[in-house]
Design goal:
It is a single chain. By secondary structure, the chain is α+β, with helices and mostly antiparallel strands. It folds into two domains: 115 residues, 2-Layer Sandwich (Beta Polymerase, domain 2), CATH 3.30.460.10; 99 residues. Helix content is 54%, strand content 13%. The protein has ten helices and five strands, in the order αβαβββααβαααααα. It has a five-stranded mixed sheet, sandwiched between helices. A hairpin with a 2-residue loop joins β3 and β4. α3 packs parallel to α5, α4 crosses α5 and α9 packs antiparallel against α10. The protein is elongated and about 60 Å long.
Length: 241
C-alpha cells in the first residue's frame, strides 16, 4: 500500500476485493470529510444481495482498520428504522454524507435517497415518560455534581460526564435534532444549539481543567429550564413487565 494513497482508494479496493458481489458501497466518517489521519479507520457501508446476511464487522485490511456496515437490500428499511430509533442515525449519516465507491445498478443512489428522507424527518420525539425520566436523571446528576467536593476528583469527573451526556440527550431532543456519542457528541450538540451547546461543553471543560462545576451546572440548569425545570419530588417511574 502506498503511503500517499487516499482512503477512498483503499476503501474501494477493500470492497472490490472482499465483496465483489456488492450492489453498492459508500465511504463515511472522517475519511469522507477529508479529515482522516494515517491511523483513522475506514467507515464503509456496503449493500449486499438478499442471499447474504446483514451484519457489522470490524476488520483490518492491508494494515488499516475498517468498520463495515453490511446490509442486504431487503433489510435496509428495517435497519434504517432501528438506526433512527436510537436518535443517532449513525449509518443514515454515512449513506447521506459519504462518498460513493461503487453503484453498478443504482441501488446505492436509491438507498441514499431513503436515508435522506429518514434524516429529513428527524429523530423520533421523546415520549412524555422518556422526557420526565431525562429531567429527573439530569437533576440528580446536577445535584450530585454541585454537592461533590473538588477534592473528590474521580466522582466529580464522572458526574460531569454524566451531566453532559444527559443534557445533550435532552437538548438535542428539544430541538428535534440528532444526537451522538463519543466524538460525535460535541458535533451534534453544537449543530443542534450552538449557544447552549457551547456552554455545556465549556462547562464540562471547566470541571476537567479547573475542578469548577459552576459553569456546567449553570448550563445544565438552562437546559432543564427549557423542559419545565428540575424534577425531584413528585417524579414517578411506572414499571410493568
Amino acid at each position: 500500500m502506498n503511503d500517499q494513497e487516499t482512503p477512498t482508494a483503499q476503501a474501494l479496493r477493500l470492497v472490490t476485493t472482499l465483496f465483489p458481489h456488492a450492489l453498492g458501497a459508500v465511504l463515511g466518517g472522517s475519511a469522507a470529510r477529508g479529515r482522516a489521519t494515517p491511523t483513522s479507520d475506514l467507515d464503509v457501508a456496503v449493500l449486499l444481495p438478499d442471499s447474504d446476511t446483514s451484519r457489522r464487522e470490524v476488520i483490518r485490511h492491508e494494515g488499516r482498520l475498517a468498520e463495515l456496515f453490511l446490509n442486504t437490500l431487503a433489510d435496509i428499511p428495517e435497519f434504517f428504522r432501528w438506526d433512527s430509533a436510537r436518535r443517532r442515525g449513525t449509518v443514515l449519516f454515512i449513506y447521506d454524507q459519504g462518498l460513493p465507491l461503487t453503484d453498478p445498478h443504482g441501488h446505492l443512489s436509491r438507498t441514499r435517497e431513503q436515508a435522506r428522507a429518514v434524516l429529513a424527518a428527524g429523530p423520533p420525539r421523546l415520549t412524555p415518560a422518556e422526557r420526565e425520566r431525562g429531567r429527573y436523571g439530569l437533576t440528580c446528576f446536577l445535584d450530585d455534581l454541585i454537592d461533590t467536593p473538588p477534592t473528590d476528583r474521580y466522582a466529580q469527573l464522572s458526574l460531569a460526564d454524566s451531566t453532559l451526556r444527559e443534557a445533550t440527550h435532552l437538548l438535542t431532543a428539544h430541538h428535534n435534532a440528532w444526537t451522538g456519542i463519543g466524538k460525535w457528541l460535541p458535533r451534534r450538540l453544537l449543530d443542534a444549539d450552538p449557544v447552549r451547546g457551547k456552554a455545556l461543553l465549556d462547562g464540562h471543560r471547566a470541571v476537567a481543567e479547573g475542578a469548577d462545576p459552576a459553569p456546567l451546572a449553570a448550563a445544565a440548569e438552562q437546559v432543564l429550564g427549557l423542559l419545565g425545570g428540575p424534577l425531584r419530588e413528585g417524579y414517578v417511574h411506572r414499571w410493568r413487565p
